[in-house]
Amino acid sequence: MSASMTLQDIAPLSFPGVESGSPIVIAGPCSAETEQQTLDTASALKAQGIGIFRAGVWKPRTMPGGFEGVGDKALKWLQRVKHETGMLVATEVATVEHVHAALDTGIDILWIGARTSANPFSMQEISEVLHGHDELTVLVKNPMNPDLDLWLGALQRIHAAGITRLGAVHRGFSSAGAHIYRNDPQWHIPFELRRLVPGMTIMCDPSHIGGKRQYIEPLSQLALDMGFDGLMIECHCDPDNALSDSGQQVTPSQLKEILEHLVIRSGTPVDDELALLRQQIDDCDHELLAVLSRRMSVSREIGRFKKANNLRVVQPSRYQDVIKARLDEADHLGLDGDFTQRVMQAIHEESVRQQLNLPE
Ligand code: PEP
Ligand code: MN
Questions:
Q1: Residue with CA closest to ligand 1 atom 2
Q2: CA-closest residue to ligand 1 atom 3
Q3: In whole angstroms, what is the distance from residue 43 CA to residue 85 CA?
């Protein structure tokens, strides 16, 4: 049986205060840093009608030395948020110990982060301690790498523990080189998840996709237009001084503005095939530009090497070899030869121009 088959009975998530047809909004800081920051952010969000509060207690950092969260003691702060504001509270869990500690303090929603959903061993261990906690809501973020099966497998493991309040969060995929967004959205992957598991809530996390606060509003609008069921947005009472992800967090009042600007369109946008296809074209163009920018930077590096070693910028035999190899490759990919030649020529000319005009 395919992974998606076992997920067919999953129903859309509902939360108190969120009307059907309105997006589910989960907001709160990347990390709970102090009791004051946690409570101040939560009460400001509650005052504007947000019902679900997020905060990272244990922070998985790609590089050592970053802020790793304050750990268990922040669970007590989330407990206070829950009792004092009536909000539901959500945090990320990555180990069995995290799950036990979160369950002991009455956390309502657990989410699995991108670094954990990529690891089937971790997912299996977490799933085994979730048995018997079917009141819990669990959200599974996409894995770091764009692998739909890995995402489905992670969801399936949680579902196998008897968790039916299950949803997915799209936070984009990690990729090498410079990109506009911090994490490449590759929208076709969550669309395929939607096609395979149509009943499941799929939220979008524009904060981690965009990586900069100015992208949150356009990405949120795009996500709603594309049929995502909700948004998870990082929000901090003093974003510039946040200990993690400072550039992508917004204040509660900025969040209010963003949410007020969003247009909720009726109809079933996910069925709008043209919009979905155009989005894929946009994704391809983003990738093309990022690759071109990387190629030009390698080219300038080569230019510096040639200059230092007194070599000529244009070496015709190398150019002929490259063109031939690219035309063969293009043929295998079903690309037209003339078109490939024109594109490669334009790229080569620009490379030469860059090597002749190296910045000092
Ligand atoms: C987070 O939500 O703060 C987080 C670390 O997310 P991700 O797993 O998407 O990187
Ligand atoms: Mn974060």
A1: 30
A2: 30
A3: 7
